[in-house]
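Table 4 source record.
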Amino acid sequence: MRFLLVAVIAALGMAATVLPGVVPGIAPRAHAQDAPLTQLEVTNVTPSVVQGNSPGELVVTGRLTNISDRTISGVEARIERGNPAATEAEAQRALRAGSRSATGPAFRPVVDELGPGQVLPIELRIPLTGPNSLQLTQPGVYPLLVNINGVPEAGGRARVAEAQFLLPVLALPGGAPAAPPPQPTPMSMLVPIVDYPRMEREALPNARGILVDDQLSTSLAPGGRLYELVQAVSETAPPGSPLGNGLCFAIDPDLLMTVRTMQSGYLVRQDDGTLAEGIGSSAAELWLSKLREATNGRCVIALPYADVDVVALGRADLPDLVTGAMEGRALVRGELGTEPREVMWPVEGALAGPAVEQMPRTVLMQPEAIGIPAGSLSPARVHGTDIAAVPIDPLLSRALDPLHDTPQRVTALSPPENGRLSAQNVLGALTVRATTARVPNATSVLAPPRRWRMGGDDLRGLLRGMQDLSEAGYVEPTALPTPDPASLPEADLTYPVDAGADEIPQPVLDALAAQNYKVGDLYRSSDNEPSSQVQPGHVTTPLRNGLLRGASSAWRGDPDAARHWVRLATRTLEGVLSQVRIGAFPGTIMMGSNTSHVPITVINDLPIQLRVELVLPRLPGVEYRELGVLRIPANGKRTFWLETSAQRPGKFFIDVGLVTEGGTRLSSGARMPVQSTAYGAVIPIITAIAGALLVGLSVRRIVRKVRAKRRDERTGGGTDQSGPVDAAVPAATDGDRDAD
């Protein structure tokens, strides 16, 4: 019994050591079901990388906001340290869930009361060494916790806010610099320039572009997300700088097309369906000039158009759309004046299916998506292809993207908050990779979230920290690797199950494919207009691009959004097709004979020449002489004479349709009223019948006369000159006459 009691006490003691929030002297966290009381935003960490010449204390600044309806009193804070992350696995755990505190410095008062909605600037300081400090004794990468306690109204003391991040320590302040690794770790980082699809309709030769909203104008203006990404890189790692050589811009061609459309003036769809003038033309022009400067002479890769889910398109057997999506390289080249490298960064770093056959020679992939040994970052040749798969560093990817292991890893803006903490985590993870988790003969490729929401100051801090690590000999910024596939070992693709579950669903792709056939048919039925500078592709390529937006990575896991964008593209396509139509005929067409020529006018408001055919209804008693393929000039019209034979009188309607040479309906057609005054074959038939009746009656009369004459001859009777004697009345006798 005593042994059982001891065992129970020991088990309870072990539970107390592993359960979060039960460390002696630390207030417990609020229960998970409780709404958060405050929000802590860390805006700066100084120093971000601790070196021998660093100041002797750590300073964390930020803002504490009471987002509850309760007053919080007695707010106090402290910064705690965990044990250094010595392996990649320990660093991964620290990034996901933090680390158990190894120090417990005293709490320091922050504010007596924090009212509902109140925002409080905070500055927390703690020595790096010595008493009541972080107690650093050696270099390493340390998990830190900013712990803020308070007493909510009608509650007990609790942890009301926290922030966790990694602090790389290369040397203790005032001490001798630690010896760097024997060789610095090569590193290359992508800078994704990606947004959500915004274009309802691209600008066409005779129509302005339409955006679904005007949010992009804010993002492109100074202080906006996309502006700050470009500006921070230009200022901190300009072209030609050592760090700048290790950066590569990953650009969505659809974003460039949208910005170009905004430059020339555009319309914005309002909530009530009306259109209003866009306000972002100046911002678009400024941002595009900034991007050209930032990418001049740099590494640039083009994403598929609208960052489409090429794997889903390949599985749906839509190779032409995959090819179209990959044609965005030409747009990037034309807009930026820089030749994009033949490198592909697929959605979620994974590939499968027929889409692989249309990839460039280098593809950036997550290690779990290719069959390479665990922990390896060495490139491999995709089995059966001439494609080199370059692994993305998973440790650094998770540090860059707090949503990496969530369903929003591709679709959401990330980091959702506290970008400064994400920057700190990257510096810590990069230091671990360069020291205790080094992978020989490999380049660490940093791939941020595709829709990177890193504030300008946060990105500058990250780049300056990378520069510190580079100057200390820990990392070496280098160009994005593009190895020769022939020199690499083979590996099989392994498409993650969860990646397949988030693909654009097949019914949406089926609808997309049906509309894409119409676009292709329109292109195949068009010709260059000698008098026009507009090529058929100037009309059909924007239509295809609109369909590609329906398969954007932005809609992975959101089929309703994908369907909505396919509908938008379909509506635009139908609007274009309807510009080729049958002209209305005023009044009623009169046919004076059984065969007449009915005039049909075909109007083409498109700036390209088209080959079309008429679709004519089957009507009883009406026949047509087919006109075959008709050529309609660009922005013009032609009248054709349809030879029509009507074998009936009266009024009838001819519903004329119009299709491309391949059968795609161009418009809803037109109804033409026709009045026929000719009887056609009816009159000869009636005349023939009447003639036959007359002849028959005449023959009958003649036959009767002949028969009567023969009877008279057989009976010996004469024939009165006045006419035949009725055989039914006997002749008078002499006795009869006498009696008279």
